[in-house]
Design a protein that fits this description.
Elements lengths: L6 E7 L5 H17 L4 E7 L10 E5 L7 H19 L3 E4 L12 E5 L10 H6 L1 H15 L8 E3 L2 H11 L4 E4 L24 E5 L9 H13 L5 E5 L7 H9 L6 E3 L5 H10 L2 E4 L8 H8 L3 E5 L2 H7 L5 E4 L4 H12 L16 E2 L1 H8 L10
Parallel strand pairs: 1-2, 1-4, 2-3, 4-5, 5-6, 6-7, 7-14, 8-9, 8-11, 9-10, 11-12, 12-13
Helix pairs in contact: 1-12, 6-11
Length: about 375
């Protein structure tokens, strides 16, 4: 191809609206704009308009995509076929697990939804029925068209191993998300309305999903209170208004002292709490990455984290962490007491990987090698 010939890259993210996936979307847009050669035009298919200033990126919004699954499937397997015919992309990356029907366009898919790997209990199915349906149905949707992809991209090594066994595919790349989060404008001596400087503050930034395991943290607080401890507080970013699961938690534990349910917070508040809290706790039973772990590392915080494969990989070679059993509130309470008493004994991480782990900016030239050119100086 001629170097001056315009090429088209499509990034499809119509199912992403918030949380960790939204950070992946923003990071990918900035990275694409920086890394792809100047003769590439980038189309971003999103749920709603995004206000960022990147001249090469043209946004196409699909606000109906989250109304229900039938509409979502219509876009993925019907509408996008004709859109591809119209804009004639050279490469298409689906950022949300599904492999769209786009004819003979070269494509890859990015997998980040953990629901197919989770065994939902009856109680969890009642509290979050949508997640239960996803856990049964999503893997089938993901499997559909998976062989059409040049690469299947995942966030961690353990997911790669599972997909290789379940789907019998070998073209899987492991690419860690960008992890820098620290805001240099946030200082330890800034005023913070959430953290009490006279108490040991445990911070759990989360959205109320059943697999996030919020309940074990509150049960641990009950144990601490029964032992007469009061020199601590736990901050959790739910308030009971988000969904049935959060309403259940806030109502059930409404009389538990030392718990602060503060609800969703804007990024500046989250960064401020990171800067002022004593420790970040992350009890989730399933993640494809565990973004708050890396955010805590960015702030050089002590981390109390579930002893599970995803956490070991996300922790990496960081030293200031303590593993606990995510199915034992007693074990978690014991570790919290040692922290309050300032008798911290850090854990050791035995995670090792033989795979080549790509950095985010290295991903794009890897997946479009035959179309890629070095960026002109």
């Amino acid at each position: 191809m001629e170097k001056n010939l315009k090429k088209i890259f499509v990034l499809s993210a119509i199912n992403i609206v918030d949380g960790g996936p939204s950070k992946i979307l923003y990071d990918s847009l900035y990275s694409l704009d920086k890394v792809l050669p100047i003769n590439w035009q980038i189309y971003a298919l999103v749920h709603s308009p995004i206000k960022i200033k990147l001249k090469r990126i043209k946004f196409l919004a699909f606000p109906a995509s989250k109304k229900n699954w039938l509409i979502r499937l219509f876009f993925e397997y019907c509408y996008f076929y004709f859109l591809a015919k119209k804009i004639k992309p050279n490469f298409w990356l689906s950022l949300h697990d599904t492999s769209p029907n786009i004819g003979d366009v070269e494509q890859s898919v990015y997998f980040h939804n953990p629901s197919p790997f989770y065994k939902v209990s009856l109680k969890e199915a009642i509290l979050e029925p949508k997640f239960f349906i996803f856990s049964k149905f999503y893997f089938f949707v993901y499997r559909f068209g998976i062989k059409k992809n040049k690469y299947v991209i995942v966030q961690q090594d353990w997911i790669k191993n599972i997909l290789e066994k379940k789907l019998n595919i070998k073209n899987i790349l492991v690419a860690y998300p960008n992890t820098s989060y620290k805001d240099k404008n946030v200082k330890k001596n800034d005023i913070n309305k959430f953290c009490n400087p006279r108490k040991t503050t445990f911070f759990f930034p989360t959205f109320p999903r059943v697999f996030k395991n919020i309940e074990i943290l509150i049960e641990a607080a009950k144990i601490l209170n029964q032992r007469g401890l009061s020199s601590y507080e736990i901050i959790v970013t739910i308030n009971g208004l988000e969904n049935l699961y959060s309403r259940y938690l806030v109502y059930k534990y409404r009389n538990i002292k030392n718990i602060k349910f503060i609800g969703f917070q804007k990024p500046s508040n989250i960064k401020n709490i990171y800067a002022h809290c004593d420790l970040v706790v992350f009890p989730s039973k399933l993640e494809t990455w565990g973004l708050p772990i890396r955010e805590a590392i960015s702030f050089n915080k002590n981390i109390l984290v579930a002893n599970l494969p995803y956490a070991k990989e996300t922790i990496g070679n960081y030293k200031k962490f303590i593993f606990f059993n995510p199915y034992s509130s007693k074990d978690l309470a014991s570790k919290m007491i040692s922290i309050i008493d300032k008798k911290i004994i850090y854990s050791k991480n035995n995670f090792l990987s033989d795979d080549v782990i790509l950095k985010w900016d290295d991903l794009w030239p890897k997946i479009i090698t035959d179309l890629y050119e070095k960026k002109p100086k």
